[in-house]
Structure formats: structure tokens, C-alpha cells
Amino acid sequence: MLNSRDQLFENHEEFRKLVHEHTQYSQRLESLTQKRFLSDDEKVEEVRLKKLKLRLKDQMETIERQHRQHIEAGQVA
């Protein structure tokens, strides 16, 4: 049985897009953290990526919450 997140990933295009973007930002951040020293531009990029990742995470959590509420409302009805 799929959990809520897996169901959303399979069936919700916007959620899937957000997960994909979040993964890309994570990978780029990982490549930055592997460097011994960051240039000023890279430091700015690192901060920007962290903020973007957080925004995407918030959006994904909102979609998950709405999905759970929808499921719960259907079970109560």
C-alpha cells in the first residue's frame, strides 16, 4: 500500500514537479558543500538554494496536508 506522499508523487503533477525541483536543489547544495572553499557567488547561491528548498518543502507539506484532509473527509462522509 502506498503512503500519502507516494500516492501524491504518482498522481499529482504539481507535487511531482516540486519534489523534482527540491531534489535538484539538494544535489546542487551537496556539490557546493563538497567544496573546501566557496566563492562569494557560491555562498550567495548556497543561501538562495536553501531558501528555495524550504519554500518547496512548505508547498509540498501544504499539498500533503490538503490530501490527508481530503481523504479523512471522504472517510467520515
Characterization of the model:
- By secondary structure, the protein is an all-alpha fold.
- It has one domain.
- The chain is 86% helix and 0% strand.
- Helix 1 crosses helix 2.
- The chain is elongated.
Q: What share of the residues does DSSP label as strand, in percent? A: under 5%
Number of helices: 3
Straight-line N-to-C gap: 22 Å
Mean pLDDT: 92
Helix and strand sequence: HHH
Work out the count of structural domains.
1
Question: Given the helix and strand composition, which structural class is it?
Answer: mainly alpha
Number of strands: 0
Outline type: elongated
Sum this structure up briefly:
Helix content is 86%, strand content 0%. By secondary structure, it is mainly alpha-helical.
Draw up the topology in text.
Blueprint: H1 4-11, H2 13-33, H3 40-76
Summary keywords:
mainly alpha; 3 helices; 77 residues; single chain; 86% helix; 0% strand
